[in-house]
Amino acid sequence: MKCHVPGPNVKVLARTVHALARFGDDLYLESLSDCILLRTLNASESAYAMVKLNKNFFSHFNHNYYCVDVEGLKCKISMKSALNAFKSPAHMDKQVENLEIKLDPHSSKLIFQLNCKHGIVKTHYVSILDCKAMQAVYTKDLVPNRITSSQRLLSEALGNFQCSDDQVTLEVTSESLIIKNFGDTPTDISRIIRSQVTIKPFEFSSYTIGTDTNITFTLKEFRALLGFAEGLNLPVQLHFEITGKPAVFVVHNGTTIEAHFVLATSKPDIGTQYTSQHTTNSERKRKENSNDNNISAKKVHLDEDLSNQFQEDSNLFNYIPNNMSQNNVRENINNVEKANSIDTNCDNIPASPTSRMRIASVFKRCFESTFDPRIIHGVVLAENSDSD
User: Fold this and answer.
1) Which one, of 221, 244, 184, 224, lies nearest residue 42 by Cα?
2) What is the pLDDT of residue 300?
């Protein structure tokens, strides 16, 4: 095989390789009589990508240049090695005049020769890992649901989702398309940011829904194919059936390039999500009710304490008769101290004594009708300044 890629199409090929690198670690190349196929598959085998470069994509194309008997060549190379040959795809059209791709069936190298400006030639020899091709089995022509949208509309919709989201769910009806994030890990719902975007049918280029369904697929590969469509400024076609069947995204310009991105779909476990959400809501309500009961119990206990305290306070400043002598007060205080000195190891612990008498003895003079300074024992250092 020997083909030449003109300068403007080198940029497209570079964007294609970078988009496929976000899917898989290996690049499968197959040369046919009228096109070249580039394929890759992710590690979990849940996403497949195929890009078809038609014969008119090249300025010169000869699939059996080195051997006439060979109908087509197949090889597998490392994706990292392919990326080294196509660095900075945004500026390749300004630096590279044309690209020459060579593949000899008797050689172990795939050659990328970049003819740059000012006579600079860069040659990359990429080792061939295996001489085999890969093909995925899927269909897109007989599916009941078909949607054609601009890549800008879908990219703006995905801008509302977090980078940490792994999967996205499409709920499709004849009236609307709902895109929302989906998480299959049992985490606390209160700590998850739920995002949901509703798009009406008139916002799409074409919208044909034969069966209402919802499908879930990986968000990483979805962003990758939208980035590929954005680089080529091409719309995205979505073909899908029901959940469990693969969803096929098609990006093509009709003449030179056609790309198929196949994503495996899974149905979100709505029952589990509802159960977990219902359980979480029940636990939250139970906690709120228990908190309310505790608060009410505390309030009742507090009200009882306050009522008792108010009753004690009402007796705290009662009038103390004048004929109550200090000896009686001392006897009462001694009785209180004896009550406090009871052994605490007893099973029947008596109630705490009231401090009414002690407090009454403190505030006794405040309620006496007159004050006699003769009851103060000791030397008076400062006499009263009043003449009386």
Assistant:
1) 221
2) 43
Q: How confident is the model at residue 260 (pLDDT cuts 50, 70, 90)?
A: very high
Q: Which amino acid is at 168?
A: V
| 0.90 exceeded by pTM | no
Residue pLDDT, tens place only, 194-218: 888 999 999 999 999 999 999 999 9
| Secondary structure letter of residue 188 according to DSSP | -
Q: Measuring CA to CA, how many Å separate 378 from each of 278, 348, 373, 382?
A: 79, 46, 11, 12
Q: In whole angstroms, what is the distance from residue 274 CA to residue 358 CA?
A: 64
The residues that bridge with 266 in the sheet, in sequence order, are: 216
Separation between Cα atoms, residue 195 and residue 325, nearest integer Å: 81
* pLDDT band for position 142 (cuts 50, 70, 90): confident
Residues 6+ apart with CB under 8 A from 46: 217, 218, 263, 264
d(CA 230, CA 224): 10
d(CA 351, CA 342): 11
Task: Using DSSP, state whether 164 is helix, strand or coil.
Answer: coil
Q: Name the band, by pLDDT with cuts 50, 70 and 90, for residue 379.
A: low
Beta carbons of 30 and 72 less than 8 angstroms apart:
yes
Quick count: other Cβ atoms within 10 Å of Cβ 146? 18
Three-state SS letters, 306-358: HHHHHHHHHHHCCCCCCCCCHHHHHHHHHHHHHHHCCCCCCCCCCCCCCCHHH
Provide the pLDDT confidence category of residue 280 given band limits of 50, 70 and 90: very low
CA atoms within 13 A on the CB side of 272: 9
217 closest CA partner among 46, 49, 43, 41: 46
pLDDT for 41 beyond 90: yes
Q: Within 13 Å, how many C-alpha atoms sit on residue 289's CB side?
A: 6
DSSP 8-state code for residue 85: H
